[in-house]
Design goal:
The chain is an all-beta fold. It has a domain of 37 residues. It contains no helices and 5 strands.
């Protein structure tokens, strides 16, 4: 997944320190026969994810 430069990174946000935030890219598995997205996933699931409630 990608966006234009004006939008910034696309993915899930996580904290790397007290204030610093970073984005883990979303990866997609696709069916080559029909083009359906089979699943979204991240390469490193062990992050300090930011959740919005």
């Amino acid at each position: 997944m990608s966006q234009s430069v004006e939008v910034g990174g696309t993915g899930l946000e996580y904290k790397t320190g007290m204030i610093i935030r970073n984005t883990e890219p979303l990866l997609a598995d696709l069916c080559k026969n029909c083009g359906t997205v089979v699943r979204f996933h991240v390469k490193n699931p062990d992050r300090n994810w930011i959740t919005k409630t």
